[in-house]
Design a protein that fits this description.
Shape: globular
CATH architecture of the largest domain: Beta Barrel
CATH superfamily of the largest domain: LytTr DNA-binding domain
Radius of gyration: 18 Å
Largest sheet: 5 strands, antiparallel
Structural class: alpha+beta
CATH class of the largest domain: Mainly Beta
Number of domains: 2
Low-confidence stretches: none
Order of helices and strands: EHEHHHEEEEEEHEEEEEH
Strand content: 25-35%
Number of helices: 6
Distance between the termini: 34 Å
Strand order of the largest sheet: 8-7-6-10-9
Mean pLDDT: 79
Helix content: 25-40%
Length: 175
Amino acid sequence: MIFTTAHEGYAVQAIRFSALDYLLKPVDPDELRAALDKIGTKEAAQSPQRPDQFMSLVRNIVLSANGERWVALPVAEGLEMVNTNDIIFCESASNSTVVHQKERKRLVISRTLKEFEDLLGAQDFIRVHNSHLINVRHVRKYLRGEGGEVVMSDGAVVAVSRRKKQELIDGLARL
């Protein structure tokens, strides 16, 4: 499997899904030839590619023409397309995750918070606690404390662990 994209942020995901190569657009013809040559090699035959993981990645991340990111989340009826800008925060609930969205909409998804962190983390999302992954663009206030707390755009108050405090502050500074 060879990934081609204009976004450097997906390189880590390509590695996680055992890609043979990762090419940034515009694709250099020599790099493409070298990547295609790998397909027939012994190295390619031994590559632990996971088609199910690849299809999951393809199904879950969609970039629209205007650069917005959408994720396809599995719900009981099928898949629900959610704009990542509408996700305020994700909350762990055992082996499921509650996705809190604008207008108080919530989805319970049968995926771990770690999977959401892998899916959303390259963008504006920071894991601030074992049980919470927040969209920093929805932070309205940071309240100091041992680790502190953040008040989100929907009024929810989310605890920040001491270990993640500096990462949060750095993420807010990048806005």
